[in-house]
Amino acid sequence: MTGRAARADADIVLSARRVGIESGETLVLLHGFGGSGHAFDPVLDDLGRFARLVLPDLPGHGGSVEVGGKRHPRAGADAVLSTLDRLGIEHFHLGGFSMGGAVACLIAMKAPGRVKSLTLVAPGGFGPEIAAATLRQFARARSREELRDALSRMVAPGAEAPETDLAALEEERRDQALVGELTAIAEMITRDDRQGELPRESLAAIECPVRVLWGTEDPVLPVTQSRDLPDGFALRRIEGAGHMLLHEAREVVTDAFLAALSDERAEDRAF
Hints:
7 strands, disordered N terminus, 7-stranded mixed β-sheet, alpha/beta, Rossmann fold, 10 helices
């Protein structure tokens, strides 16, 4: 499903893929900067057996490259909620990777009664530090080698960039308009080589169970940003993993989402 909008950001409808079982709980998954819903392909088979999965492409990304409106995370949160409204989805579990984690937090703040659980995978917005040069390089990359070089800077030392991601990204980056959008977004979210922060007091107001996963060797968003999380946030630091946890720690990520779907309270489970 794709759509354009010329009105407010909240009226924008995004491209969104739906997979999994229709009878299960709804799990909405938000990708990171420069990617698309395909970022979650490594976990779809396992999760799709238990849930109805909705994978929007955020504004300026993937199939949503041409949607109108702004590109900042708050506008992305409004666009995701508008898309879910159009799909008739009122209540849902929510997960986000990297920039998608920041967008997911904003959704949980904006629509607390709708979000049943929140699972954050190396989320953005938890501190000012960010590998700005890496993200700008990634935004501009088009060829397989350029993409491989950029992604190699996002994994733990000694790890390799995931080939499955490279194939999907190379196909998407054939669209010059997409590359232009990503280049502009990268400049916006890394202005002055820093990222915007979500205030801890705002995070503390999130009402649903929250799980956070972070690699101890994350070269994009340092694991130190996981310090001093609000009470009730269940944190797991993954030893030796980098930023690309959907590949580097696939089973851990899958287990965290399955725990959220099982309605177990985050603080009651070592996930």
